[in-house]
Amino acid sequence: MNQRSLPLSRSLPHTIDSSDAFIDLDRLFSAIQRRYKTLVFFTIAAILCGAAYLAFATPLYTSMTQVLIDDSLSRYAEEQESSAQTGQQLDTRIASTVEILKSGKLALRVVDQADLSDNELLTNPPRSLMATVKGWVAAVSGVFAKGARVSEDDLANARRQKAAAMLQQSLRVERVSRSSVVSIAFTSPDPRLSALVARTYADAYLSDQLSANFEASERASEWLQERIDDLGKRAQTAAMEVETYKRDNNLTSTRGALMSEQQLADLNSQLIIAQADAASASARYDQLNSIIQTGPEKAVENSVLTAKEIDNSAIQELRSRYGAVSKREQDVTQNFGADHPQAVALRAEKLDLSRQIFRELQQMTATYRNEYEVARSREQSLRDSIDRVAGRNSDANEAQVKLRELEQKATTLKAVYESYLNRYEQASQQRSFPIAKARVISEAGLPVSPSSPKKTMILALSAVLGMMAGGAFAFVQEMRERGLRLESDVRSQLRHRSLGYLPLIGRKTAGQRSPFGRLFRRKRREDVESDEPMPLEQMTRIVRDAPQSTFAETLRNAKLACEMLLQKRPNKVIGIISAAPGEGNTTFAANFALLLASAGKRTLLVDADLRNPSLSRMLKPAPKAGLVEAVLGDVPWASAIKIDQQTRLAILPNVPDGATEQFHYTNEIFASPGMGTLMENARKTFDYTIVDLAPFGPVVDAKAFAQHADGFILVLEWGKTPSRLVRDILEAEIDINSKVLGVVLNKTDMEQLPAYGDSGGSEKFRKNYTRYYVE
């Protein structure tokens, strides 16, 4: 037989995936459309669970109060303003306040203050399911039995501790934003209890702060009193030591300094003056002595210099007389000559005046010499006195070092004593007027509506969780999707031509009326309106009874493909195969052969499924001989053919027990020479030979028959047959894969098909095509 591969049935190019690499919104919306029932179911189920929870949940009421931490409340009781707190210090203080409010000590104080130790909601709250089960187990096994008998005081203390623990569990304390306000909220099944506990907590905190301040002031006052007494005694002792040391070392002081120091300072001042006087006298004496050394001749000239430095009236007068005589002498000399007696007398007078001036200078020199010697004696005397006083002051300085040490100790003790005395007075004042640095700015009111459970939020959350669970389940379902749904899947995954969809018939699908209902209602109304499958006899005649249906249109598409692909073969042998049992290849083969026969083609339908000849079982009466007998030559092949009188369709049946002992396996029949002879005879007699073969996945009959066939039409169940299975089988069966004319997706749910189609795909427009079909 001719084994040439068909040129148009070769591997088709892969379909280019134009979807977004990250997420394809079209596919996402299609998946939601396909799985919306799952999403709705899970959402409704979650909402019902939330409603059930709300029905059985105990309502809880929350009451809240707010406390402001304010340091300015104590500014009138404190003498000095406290320094501004940094942000970190404020955060630390607020955090400490929150922990104090959560502490067990404050909880016990609230229990005692509000008398809550006997409150049943706190000491005996409603038991949870786990606690109830635990109680049952304890009652049965005694594992959780109580211990030894305790006293009433221990029981009362245990109830008190338990009430405090329950308060801590239901209490919520937190800082309000970044402010200095702390909110205190308590939740319980009783609104009055919630309001009572919240108010009591605020009062207990303020009372605790007052008590803490009072106790701290009390302890500080007692400690400061002890320290003041001790410091007072030590300061007094130190002051007495200073005075004793002064008296013993003769360290008398006036105006803040020792007398020796003041005396030494006075002597130094006098010495400086004496030194200045001695220097001045020495200068005058030296000057006059130098003038005397020049002789009496220059006495008049030197007297001019002396008059500038020394104020002497006698020399002044003598110089005046000397000047007048000199002038008269010059006048007489000019008028009468130098030898004139008057001129001579005047010169004698000038000489006498010069001698008088010289004698005056000598007397002044002697006077200044005496003054100089006196000044030097006084300077030396002062130096001697300073040396004596300095010696005594050195001893006083050595003693004063110890004195300063004693004075510093006394001063320090006095300062510390005054500081502690001041702090003691402040502590005493604060103890007499304690102030809490906090105040309530929002009173706890009686709640009028429960704070938990929040019905709207729980129902909304249930719906969201239900949608998430439904989405997860739908995602798992989508990930488990292995079947072929679209013609594009056939082309991209199997790389074969798609011949179309055969709709699912015989059942109500998705709550809709069964396809072809109007066609078969008038024939077998009771079968169509029920959920039972359509009788096999009717399913083989769908193409004749509904020639304008989608089913018939797909068969016509398959016929056209066969004619185009096998146009050079006037007599065609076409095998109808499937990958797995139950995919409807028998129904397709019968309707396809019936379509060809109705079109005037000489058509032979061969039931070649030797193990499950369902087509032959529909024949009435049951055939006595069939395909196996014709292949073996037991009967002429023409005598085994049955003819449908309405369509002239020839059928070669298959008797279920027709195989003889000559063939141990059914594939031997298809590979036998008799099968080749039968197919050659069929080619000579018929235009089309349609062979209904067994699935080529579980058995090899189709592979053995491949040598006789011109082509195969592969029938796959829509969405059921895994594409990986079909692809692996086709890759393994090269002879069959090369002769596949196309693939038909059978049992397609036409109502769900658009939900699997891509945006713009032909599947999305199926509803628009229905006007051309009559079903």
Q: Give the total of beta strands.
A: 14
Q: What do we call the CATH homologous superfamily of the domain at 487-505 and 533-769?
A: P-loop containing nucleotide triphosphate hydrolases
Alpha plus pi helix count: 28
Strand content: 5-15%
- What top-tier CATH class of the domain at 487-505 and 533-769 fits best? Alpha Beta
Mean pLDDT, all residues: 78
CATH fold group of the domain at 487-505 and 533-769: Rossmann fold
Strand order of the largest sheet: 7-14-13-8-12-9-11-10
Largest sheet: number of strands, sense, barrel closure: 8 strands, mixed
Structural class: alpha/beta
Radius of gyration: 67 Å
**C-alpha end-to-end distance:** 41 Å
Query: Overall 3D geometry?
Result: elongated
Q: How much helix, percentage-wise, in residues?
A: 55-70%
pLDDT < 50 stretches: 1-21, 508-515, 519-536, 658-662
Q: Architecture of the domain at 487-505 and 533-769, according to CATH?
A: 3-Layer(aba) Sandwich
Q: What characteristics describe this protein?
A:
about 775 residues, 4-stranded antiparallel beta sheet, alpha/beta, Rossmann fold, elongated, about 60% helix
Give an overview in words.
With 775 residues, the protein is α/β, with parallel strands linked by helices. Among the domains are: 58 residues, no CATH class; 174 residues; 256 residues, P-loop containing nucleotide triphosphate hydrolases (Rossmann fold). It has an eight-stranded mixed beta sheet with strand order 7-14-13-8-12-9-11-10, with helices on both faces. The longest helix is centred in the middle third of the chain and has 92 residues. The two termini are 41 Å apart.
